[in-house]
Write a structure and sequence with these properties.
The complex is a heterodimer of chains A (114) and B (116).
Chain A (H helix, E strand, L loop, with lengths): L2 E3 L4 E5 L4 E3 L2 E3 L4 E8 L5 E7 L5 E3 L5 E5 L4 E6 L8 E9 L6 E3 L3 E6 L1
Chain B lengths: L3 E4 L2 E4 L5 E7 L5 E7 L5 E9 L2 E4 L6 E3 L9 E3 L8 E8 L11 E2 L3 E5 L1
Parallel strand pairs in B: 2-11
Antiparallel strand pairs in B: 1-3, 3-8, 4-5, 4-9, 5-6, 7-8, 9-10, 9-11
The chains are: A mainly beta (114), B mainly beta (116).
């Protein structure tokens, strides 16, 4: 079975400060890892993914994520937060042994204050 | 523009009624999915399909049914057997690359179903 944990329901940061949204995962095979963002009453939008290769992945809107196999983590980061980054963020995993099914975390609400 | 279209955006249903949610994509993606989202919870997979005329149950398929007669379309029926159908329903699609499902999901804007 595959699973994803986002340990923080809410993350609050000041505009201009760095932000981190945490994600840990569990899979039986090699993981495909994804981050998505959701604005109120909208669908999810893809931010970035890790399939293989460099552990630091860069994505949309200045976001990046670091894959750490030993800690089974895939934390989302941004060097300087914007108020417009405030949204609900989801981490997801797809197991290479279970192709077709993505499992999502419960989501982390990011609030960036001016 | 390419994308995924879900309809209706809002739907109200009386108890005991079946309802069908539409999902159409023009991205030429092979795989399509239905997720359910409840407040404070992540997305839970209802059904998915990786090829026309074939689909698999996800984690919460009971009370739901789907069909995949065309590559572009993956409608979801919420039946009267679904005990708690009020939720936000999201349809998604993805590419299959070299037979492996590594592609990210592209989501529609969602359908909010409320049972009265």
């Amino acid at each position: 079975a595959q699973s994803v944990a986002q340990p923080e329901d809410q993350v609050n940061v000041a505009e201009g400060n760095p932000l981190t949204v945490k994600c840990t995962y569990s899979v039986s095979g090699n993981p495909y890892l994804f981050w998505y963002v959701q604005y109120p009453n909208r669908g999810l939008q893809f931010l970035l993914k890790y399939i293989t290769g460099d552990n630091l992945v860069k994505g949309s809107y200045g976001f990046e994520a670091e894959f750490n196999k030993s800690q089974t983590s895939f934390h989302l980061k941004k060097p300087s937060a914007l108020v417009s980054d405030s949204a609900l963020y989801f981490c997801a995993v797809r197991d290479t042994a279970n192709a077709g099914k993505s499992t999502f975390g419960d989501g982390t609400t990011l609030t960036v204050k001016p | 523009d390419g994308g995924i279209t879900q309809s209706p955006k809002y739907l109200f249903r009386k108890e005991g009624q079946n309802v069908t949610l539409s999902c159409e994509q023009n991205l030429n993606h092979d795989a399509m999915y239905w997720y359910r989202q409840d407040p404070g919870q992540g997305l839970r997979l209802i059904y998915y399909s990786q090829i026309v005329n074939d689909f698999q149950k996800g984690d919460i398929a009971e009370g739901y049914s789907v069909s995949r007669e065309k590559k572009e379309s993956f409608p979801l029926t919420v039946t009267s057997a679904q005990k708690n159908p009020t939720a936000f329903y999201l349809c998604a699609s993805s590419r299959l690359t070299s037979g492996a499902n590594t592609g990210e999901l592209f989501f529609g804007e969602g359908s909010r179903l409320t049972v009265l």
